Amino acid sequence: MNRKNDPVKNIDRERREYPRYDTEVKIYFHLKYDIQTRVKFKVLVSNHKASDSHKYSGLSKNVSAEGLCFISKKKLEKGDLLFIEVYEPKVKGPVKMEGQVRWSRKLPGKTRAKDAYFTGVRIILVDNKLVSDTIYFDKKYKVMWSTILESLFGNFAATLKKAK
How far apart are CA 94 and CA 84, in angstroms? Predict the structure, then answer.
């Protein structure tokens, strides 16, 4: 796919506050509130275990200090609140996140997955920690980092060593 037609690359670059890091890891998510939840009066608890809402799967495309982009078959609406579990092979157990959908767009052209969507999510909590409180600038390596990136990649110095 060329850059010109890539919807992830063309999403208002000037609005992006933090650099993106490509990822391809399995994720699962469910809506914090959905129509079925409201009709049946089910209560979702903060530990993610009591939800009766449907669980969807996806594949992450990139991650930043404050957000996550993924592909799934579920069309989400701007403002939807999600519980997300990210399965990074090097991390024991899922990384649990909560976030809010910022945008969702249908994949363009012919794809293997009929009706697949790119979705961008602003992550609010990672393992019950506020992401906004964990974003910092690593002066030594001159990079923005956060609990999201730390949870998936480890600390930045260790990530650099692995890449070499």
Answer: 9
